[in-house]
């Protein structure tokens, strides 16, 4: 087990691990403990009552947080003709077709954080599966990154769209803002994410669905949140 520094250990002492905090209390505490020299990202982990080994209990999607994430992500769009022009006008950082595929294949270029593709480009982009897939960069219809409406897709990413996907242990991890956000905005982003996860609950999931919610900053300890109070 890696040893945590004194700052982390001091912060941990201020968190009561035996209770579940009210959402605003949790946000207030994590902001108080965010004392790194940079604007820490606020992250949430949601433990779900699903078995990801079954296809009908897989959860994956994307959403735009009400107040964004506080981070502007670099977007690459695979498109041709009018759709390429549309992507450029919408604010895409890089736009191309076969030339971009070749750049990634031959040069190993990965100077982007989100890739969007028009459906007609997926036959070509598919050649990048082994490179982009393991990095979570492959365009996917489930997250809205394979679409002819490239302008909207780019605008949503720039506005703070996040992707969520259940891991092997049944957890969802996602950023919900920065420590510099005011308390209410962080609480509202948290509420929006949990409500979205409830909306996409698989029919096959039985028993308690939201089993636990924990918030933390990049360098801080986890703080348990009362899930029922989040959506109240």
UniProtKB/TrEMBL annotation:
Q: Which SUPFAM superfamilies match?
A: Ribosomal protein L1
Biological process (GO) annotations held by this record are:
regulation of translation; translation
Q: Does the keyword Heme apply?
A: no
GO (cellular component) term, any one: large ribosomal subunit
Give UniProt keywords alphabetically.
Answer: Repressor, Ribonucleoprotein, Ribosomal protein, RNA-binding, rRNA-binding, Translation regulation, tRNA-binding
Cross-referenced InterPro entries, in alphabetical order? Ribosom_uL1_bac-type, Ribosomal_uL1, Ribosomal_uL1-like, Ribosomal_uL1/biogenesis, Ribosomal_uL1_3-a/b-sand, Ribosomal_uL1_CS
Task: Tell me if Cell membrane is a UniProt keyword of this record.
Answer: no
State a single Gene Ontology molecular function. Answer: structural constituent of ribosome
Q: What does this protein do?
A: Protein L1 is also a translational repressor protein, it controls the translation of the L11 operon by binding to its mRNA. Binds directly to 23S rRNA. The L1 stalk is quite mobile in the ribosome, and is involved in E site tRNA release.
- Family membership: Belongs to the universal ribosomal protein uL1 family.
Cite the record's note on assembly. Answer: Part of the 50S ribosomal subunit.
What's the protein name? Large ribosomal subunit protein uL1
């Amino acid at each position: 087990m890696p040893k945590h520094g004194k700052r982390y250990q001091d912060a941990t002492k201020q968190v009561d691990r035996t209770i579940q905090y009210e959402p605003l209390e949790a946000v207030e505490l994590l902001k108080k403990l965010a004392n790194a020299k940079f604007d820490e990202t606020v992250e949430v982990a949601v433990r779900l009552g699903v078995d990801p080994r079954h296809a009908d209990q897989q959860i994956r999607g994307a959403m735009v947080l009400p107040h964004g994430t506080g981070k502007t992500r670099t977007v690459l769009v695979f498109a041709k003709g009018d759709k390429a022009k549309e992507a450029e006008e919408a604010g895409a950082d890089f736009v191309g077709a076969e030339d971009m595929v070749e750049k990634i294949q031959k040069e190993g270029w990965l100077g982007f954080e989100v890739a969007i593709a028009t459906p007609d480009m997926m036959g070509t982009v598919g050649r990048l599966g082994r490179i982009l897939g393991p990095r979570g960069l492959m365009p996917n219809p489930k997250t809205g990154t394979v679409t002819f409406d490239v302008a909207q897709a780019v605008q949503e990413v720039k506005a703070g769209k996040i992707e969520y996907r259940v891991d092997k242990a049944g957890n969802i991890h996602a950023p919900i803002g920065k420590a510099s956000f005011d308390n209410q905005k962080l609480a509202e982003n948290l509420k929006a994410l949990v409500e979205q996860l409830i909306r996409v609950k698989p029919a096959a999931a039985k028993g308690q669905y939201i089993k636990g919610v924990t918030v933390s900053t990049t360098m801080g300890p986890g703080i348990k949140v009362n899930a029922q109070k989040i959506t109240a």
